[in-house]
Structure formats: C-alpha cells, structure tokens
Amino acid sequence: MDELEFRRRLFADPNDTEVIDHAIENPEQQGLVNELQDFDAQLKSALHVEVPTGLADRILQQQYKDETSTASNVVDIAWYRRYNAPFATAASMVLAVGIYFMSATSSPLQAGEHALEHVYYEVNALERSQEVALQVVNEKLAMFGAQFDSLPGKVTYATFCNFKGQKSLHLIFQSEHGPMTVFIVPAQNNDYQQEDGHFSDERFAGVIANGQKADTILVANIGTPMEDYQTEINGALRWL
C-alpha cells in the first residue's frame, strides 16, 4: 500500500493488522502506529463512565416523591417495587448512555467552552518556542486526507487530541498577536455552528468555521483579528 493509503487506514483503525504488518520494517510508520494506538486507548478510557452505586435507586425514589407530591396525581408504585433490580439496571444503562451523549454531542456553546478548556488544560504549550516543521504537521494532517500549503506563523506545537470524543489535530503557531491555537476537527457528526461562530472569556477569544470535511477552531488572545487568520488558514488547507 502507498503512504496515503497507509495513513488513512491507520487513522480509521489503529489496530488494522495489515497496516501494523506493513509498518514493521519502517520505524517512522511504526512510530505513528504506536502513537495512534496509544491515543485510541486513551480515547476509549475517557469515554468509559462508571455509574455511581445506588444512583439509579435514588433517581427512582426522587421520581416517586415528585409524583406523589401532587395530590391530584397520586401513583401506586408497588407494582414495580418487585422489579427493582431490572429497573435499576435499565436506569443505570440509560444514565450511562445519557452521560456519554452529553459529553460527546456538541452544541455551539459547548464546543466553544470545550476549546477554551482544552487550551487552559495545555496552557504551558503556548510557551513553547522550538519550531515544528511544516512537513511534520502535514504528516499528521495526512491522516485526515489533507495538508497545509503554509501557515501564518512558526508552528511550535502539533499533536493529536481528543476534541469531544473526536480524533483531531491540535496546533499552535506564533502569530503577530501571540500564540494561536488551531483545532482541526474532522466533520463527522459535528454540530458546532452558531450565529456568528464566536466565543470568548476574559483572556481568550475563539472562532469556529464549519467545513464539509473538517471544522477549524481558532483560539487566541483577546483582540486578535480572528477572521483574518481563519480565512488564511482555511485558504491554505488543501484536501488530497
């Protein structure tokens, strides 16, 4: 298989046996396999949510209190007390699924908040000064089937990340207005769009641009001309 097919298949399934066998004789490819497998394991771990013991019973108890508090709508719940264990199990499953979808499903505000939280979580990366070659950035970006012709500043950080349950690329480059964070999030069931695509807090501002194949999310210091950089970055992003 050629390099592009290797990277696309690896990104789709880091445990693809053919891809793993293909990389055995190539140290660089083997390094990518290890990196993606580690990330896949971290992602699965992050999405595994333990339901607190007894929570389902407390939910049912509260529901009963709410229902019986209205005199005109008193409900006899004795019929399901005999089936407490099955209902508790079902409630636990519903709760676990609900927690997953609340964490993995994006609304505009949630996406902006998540981007800001992600930046704060890795805020030390903003201080990096050693340049990451554009070739290295494109090697990672090739797993999405794309590459950058250029970037409006020296790249000092490039790594894969988990953006709300989606494998994404996290970049930082040094602009005239300070370090700027760029998230490239493959457009798979993403719903980040809002009226103006902007979000901010007391330190950072951000903008979200939806694309057919990927969304680009920029975060930078307050006062940075985000739209100008967004236009330049999206113009340099080329799909293979």
Architecture overview:
- This is DUF3379 domain-containing protein.
- It holds the Pfam family DUF3379.
- InterPro entries: DUF3379.
- This protein is an alpha+beta fold and 240 residues long.
- It has 3 domains: 3-46, no CATH class; 55-104, no CATH class; 108-239, Phosphorylase Kinase, domain 1 (2-Layer Sandwich), CATH 3.30.200.100.
- The chain has 9 helices and 8 strands.
- It has helices spanning 3-12, 17-23, 27-46, 55-68, 78-81, 84-104, 108-121, 134-141, 226-236; strands spanning 146-148, 154-163, 166-175, 178-186, 198-200, 204-209, 214-221, 237-239.
- It has a 6-stranded antiparallel sheet with strand order 2-3-4-7-6-5, sandwiched between helices.
- A hairpin with a 4-residue loop joins strand 6 and strand 7.
- Helix 4 (55-68) crosses helix 6 (84-104).
- The longest helix is centred in the middle third of the chain and has 21 residues, at 84-104.
- It is globular, with a radius of gyration of 23 Å.
Short account of what is shown:
With 240 residues, this protein is α+β, with helices and mostly antiparallel strands.
Topology:
Elements: H1 3-12, H2 17-23, H3 27-46, H4 55-68, H5 78-81, H6 84-104, H7 108-121, H8 134-141, E1 146-148, E2 154-163, E3 166-175, E4 178-186, E5 198-200, E6 204-209, E7 214-221, H9 226-236, E8 237-239
